[in-house]
Amino acid sequence: MKQKKKSDVNVLLGYAGSHKGLTFLGLALSAVSMLLSMVPYICIWLVARDLIAAAPEWAQAQSVAQYGWLAFAFAVAGIILYFAGLMCTHLAAFRTAANIRKQGVAHVMKAPLGYFDSNASGLIRGRLDAAAADTETLLAHNLADIVGTITLFIAMLVIMFVFDWRMGAACLLAAVISVVAMFSMMGGKNIKLMSEYQAAQDRMTKAGTEYVRGIPVVKIFQQTVYSFKAFQEAIEDYSSKAEHYQGDVCQVPQSINLTFTEGAFVFLVPAALFLAPGTLAGGDFAGFITNFAFYAVFSAIISTALAKIIFAASGMMLSSYGGTPE
After folding, report:
1. Which of 26, 141, 234, 316 could form a disulfide with 85 if both were Cys (CB 3.0 to 4.6 A apart)?
2. Which of the 8 DSSP states describes residue 241?
3. How far apart are alpha carbons 72 and 192 in whole angstroms?
4. Domain carrying residue 62
């Protein structure tokens, strides 16, 4: 029976040893902190609701101060829990990266001499040092942001669709377009392109290390830097692939992604105008304004959540190409 391949995250957590539990604790704290971070937005809406209901007798909205203190308390609690969660994930990430380096060095020490003929020292160093550093970012930040953002999105979907599913769908549409644009950059045929980009970076690291180590030879035999054609070609190859990926592949999707990430509010106004005649026909103007204010407040969370997803997705992709030498 064919053994199921472990995911990249499971492979990395295998290096955490006894600190693996800290990672899961940090993820749980991050999820709870995201839920707490929603409460201040709810309080803002409650303040707007009471002020609209009391207008123009603003003094009758006596609960405004209470909502303000409640928002402050939950905001502080969310920050504290998020900080505690990151402390846990950082401790686990540092130990994981250290274990990767230790086990990688132990593996290299046992390798036959022929191993170093096919694996240059620059490539080995890049795998043991740079790739291990990338895992720190993934385990310390990216996983916590992914878990927290998923929790936030689920909670937002429940709240938004309970109040008015049509307005909730309008807010969600911007997020859907942004996610589709993001995956068009990182999925499908571009997965191979990202692999080639990472391979070009490895070759440049390898050639750069060999070039620096060969400087004494250049000086002794009075050669020129052009004798290191491999280094020059590696830089040009890496530059070409980076320009192609960032310029040709990512230019349009990233523009769409940023536009709708920051403009989640753009679909809310047309939806509100479409629903206005039916709502205002019943004479409930205050209810219409209150409902619109609720979704206007929550649409601000979408851009923050999507930005975290984009940052975390880049770390997940790096984990697929890093690692210790085989």
Report:
1. 26
2. H
3. 47
4. 8-321
Tokens of 186: 């990182």
Q: Tokens in use for 108?
A: 């290299």
Residue 226 within a domain: yes
* CATH label of the domain that carries residue 257: 1.20.1560.10
End-to-end distance of the chain based on CA atoms, in angstroms? 24
DSSP-H helix ranges across the chain: 8-13, 20-54, 64-110, 115-118, 121-125, 131-137, 143-163, 165-186, 190-213, 215-220, 229-243, 251-262, 268-281, 285-321
CA 195, chain centre distance (Å): 19
Q: Which amino acid is at 188?
A: G
pLDDT in tens, the chain (326 residues): 445 556 667 777 777 777 888 889 999 999 999 889 888 888 888 887 787 777 777 677 778 888 889 999 999 999 999 999 999 998 988 888 888 888 877 877 787 777 766 666 666 766 676 667 777 777 888 888 888 888 887 888 788 777 777 777 877 787 788 778 877 777 666 667 767 777 777 777 777 776 776 666 666 655 555 556 777 778 888 888 777 777 777 778 878 877 777 776 777 777 777 777 666 655 566 666 777 777 777 777 776 677 677 666 666 665 555 444 44
In a domain, 3, yes or no: no
Identify the burial level of 171 via C-beta atoms within 10 angstroms of its C-beta, where 0-12 means exposed, 13-18 middle and 19 or more buried: buried
Q: Are 152 and 35 in contact (CB under 8 A)?
A: yes
Q: Number of structural domains, the chain?
A: 1
Query: Is the Cβ–Cβ distance between 53 and 289 less than 8 Å?
Result: no
Question: Which residue type occupies 115?
Answer: Y
Whole-angstrom distance, CA of residue 148 vs CA of residue 153: 9
Amino acid identity of 130?
A
Burial class of residue 279 (count of CB atoms within 10 Å of its CB; 0-12, 13-18, 19+): middle
Q: 293 with 269: CB under 8 angstroms? A: no
